[in-house]
Amino acid sequence: MRKSFLFLLFTLLSFGLFAQEGDRVQGKEVYEHWCSSCHAPGGRKHPGTSALEFIYKGEKSGVLEERLDLTPELVALFVRKGVKIMPPFRKTEISDKDLLDLGAYLSPQN
Amino acid sequence: MRYPPGVSQSDFDRAVRQFESAIGADWVFTDEADVDLYRDAYSPLWGEEEEKIPSIALAPQSAAEVQSLMAICNEFQIPVYPVSTGKNLGYGGSAPVLTGSVVLDLKRMNRIIEVNEENAFALVEPGVSYFDLYNYIQEQGLDLWIDCPDPGWGSLIGNSLDHGVGYTVNPYRDHFEAHCGMEVVLADGDIVRTGMGALPNAETWQQYRWGYGPWMDGLFAQSNFGVVTKMGFWLSPAPEAFRSGSVQVMKYNDVHELVRITAKMMYSGILNSNAGVQSPMQFAIGQNPEMQERYDRANEEDIRILDEFALSNNTPFWSSQFKFYGPREIVDSSWEYVKRQFADIDGVRYQDQESLNFPMPYEELMQTADENHLGVPSMSVFQLGNRSNFNPAGTNGHLGFSPVVPMTGEAVLESNKVLGKVLREMGGNTVFNVPPYSYHQRTFTILVGFTVSRDADVNRKTRKIFRELVKVAAEHGWGEYRTHTAFMDDCAAAYSFNDNALLRLQQTLKDAIDPKGIISAGRYGIWPKHIRDEEGKGIAAVNVNKGDKEKKGDNNA
Q1: Are A92 and B380 within 8 A, CB to CB?
Q2: Confidence band (pLDDT; 50, 70, 90) for B552?
């Protein structure tokens, strides 16, 4: 009993941030404020979309909102680490709470 | 936690506690993972010992909080580096010039304090981006346009203070020229308002910029004399129509008339937006070693053959694009008038481009050739360096060498020749070479773009080429209008008239206004006294440079 309690506690701590539920409605606002200027549909004016279209070549959508395989962890990784010309976002831009909401919004609903 | 240079650990620990008390512990970032978010994502020094990395970051929410933080920094002589939105990518981003500085992140100060439609101005805080102001104006249904630079996420204040530019009309497109009135927190925490803002009940702070007595605003741009916490900007009433077209001339030597007439119309106010000189032949010449050699040498025979080459390609040697904003009748007749001015150039061609009426739905604006030229902020410029068929690996950012040259055909040819020679001889891997463009009134700016890499060897080579360009350009009387933090000493050293009298004056002012030297040490080559004395920065570094001896730090690279 004690062992399984410790395991559960460890699991919860390991997942940390992502054990919490993000708010998809708030996440949409975060997305529209910070992400859509690069990731909206229409690659000609949206460099994030055009880069992903180039990478996936139709295998997956270049539009983040249409992706079915994103997870909060993956979203957090790119937001905090950046990739190529996309710089990371500071916590004064996208807070940890915003990131949680954004992750929930961009992950497909279960 | 990282510590700033020249501050004892115990003093810094005490200061951090005071920072937390002043703005709340949530907004004092000391964890290295959080502070690493302030690294310059486009740093040409990435991963090297010389990379500029902050110690901690502070994020105040008001001018009063900035005052408290500055008073603490001043007490403990802690180097502090304010950034507005931290998006000055290509020019240092949110990283300081002096490693270990505390970044003062003003992004949370994002209030649009006033937008006045009748007198067409805005008063904003540093965290307000071009997107924010544009969206606010749209939501309020105001009959106003903003002028934005290429990426829309930057700060109006930060961009203006770094002499950033946009694409609509004078005086709005030169963002420092378009500002009117500032509020500034000084190193000791005092707060000052410039221009008419010095009147306690000012009613024209954003309308009359000179105020009374010496105009101080220039001191706070490209410098380190204070922290700007509010700034006013003139806005343009939304124009009724837009028109664009290009004038194309066929021969090498036609560039002289093309530029002379363009400049005259600019000085007359007939053309009041930016224009550039492009060579539609540039690519064909660059692909042909013989033609490139002739272009570089350009004697009479070479020019004759180059003209024949252009003719055989049925391609104009030069072209300029012109833009017109205003009432429909005026933009149409202006374009017709402009075309007539070039009519005496043999073989001249004209191309009508866009003709738009406003207001237009946002979706349609985003389908135009360049929405930024219509005061609509976006991120579309980041297609440059993006992963694509043209550039499958993409880039890790960019930076630009951008000297100011005269608006003459002669300068167009000479700058192309001189800078192109340096790039070719040093194996420059430029991502885009933009011909002269009048980003500012009355001059052309050359923008030589470089890609930034995560490979230190590539970056070292870029830095070497960049420094050579600074030196060679200066020999021709051309200086940078703005530069990345990695090259601020180099560019300051080029402005060396009378034994660096300008930098000496700037240092005198620095020592008087910020006697403990805490604000943005090294920004635009201005170093505080204690660092000049201890580390040979400032004039000492300039003099070492002149003697071709080795400089300290990253300038060796």
Answers
A1: no
A2: very low
Distance CA B520, CA B81 (A): 5
Compute the distance between CA of residue B107 and CA of residue A96 in angstroms, rounded to an integer: 16
Q: Say whether B392 and A54 touch across the interface (CB within 8 A).
A: yes
**Which of A82, A84, A92 is closest, CB to CB, to B108?**
A92
Give residue B429's pLDDT band: very low, low, confident or very high (50, 70, 90).
low
The mean pLDDT value for B54-58 works out to 98
Amino acid at B523: R
- A45 to B371: CB separation less than 8 angstroms, yes or no: yes
For residue A42, list chain B residues with Cβ-Cβ distance below 8 A. 366
Measured between beta carbons, the chain B residues lying within 8 angstroms of A46 are 379-380
pLDDT band at B542, cuts 50/70/90? Answer: low
- Chain B residues whose CB is inside 8 A of the A92 CB are 27, 59, 105, 107-108, 127
DSSP states of B230-285? EEEEE-EEPPSEEEEEEEEE-STTHHHHHHHHHHHHHHTTS--B--B-B-TTHHHH
d(CA B194, CA B183): 6
Which chain B residue is nearest to residue A54, measuring alpha carbons?
B388
Residues of A in contact with B431 (CB under 8 A): none
Chain A residues contacting B via beta carbons under 8 Å:
37-38, 42, 44-48, 50-51, 54-55, 80, 82, 84-85, 87-93
Contact call for B41 and A38, based on CB within 8 A: no
Q: How many residue pairs bridge chain A and chain B with CB atoms within 8 Å of each other?
A: 78
State percent of chain B over pLDDT 70: 95
* Chain B residues within an 8 Å CB radius of A82: 41
pLDDT value, residue A83: 96
pLDDT in tens, B251-270: 999 999 999 999 999 999 99
The mean pLDDT of A5-11, rounded to a whole number, is 45
Contact B440, B170 (CB under 8 A): no
Indicate yes or no: CB of B382 within 8 angstroms of CB of A89: no
Cα-to-chain-centroid distance, residue B338: 29
DSSP state of B77: T
Phi, psi of B324, deg, nearest 5: -135, 135
Give buried/exposed letters for B443-460 (b at 16+ CB in 10 A, else e). bbbbbbbbbbbeebebbb
| Per-chain mean pLDDT for chain B | 94
Task: Round the CA-based radius of gyration of chain A to a whole number and report it.
Answer: 16
Alpha-helix runs per DSSP H in B102-235:
130-140, 156-161
| SS3 sequence of chain A | CHHHHHHHHHHHHHHHHHHCCCCHHHHHHHHHHHHHHHHCCCCCCCHHHHHHHHHHCCCCCCCHHHCCCCCHHHHHHHHHHCECCECCCCCCCCCHHHHHHHHHHHCCCC
How far is B188 from B407, CA to CA, in rounded Å?
43
What burial letters (b/e) apply to B295-322, b meaning 16+ CB within 10 Å? beeeeeebbeebbebbeeeebbbbbbbb
Question: Is the pLDDT score of A45 beyond 50?
Answer: yes
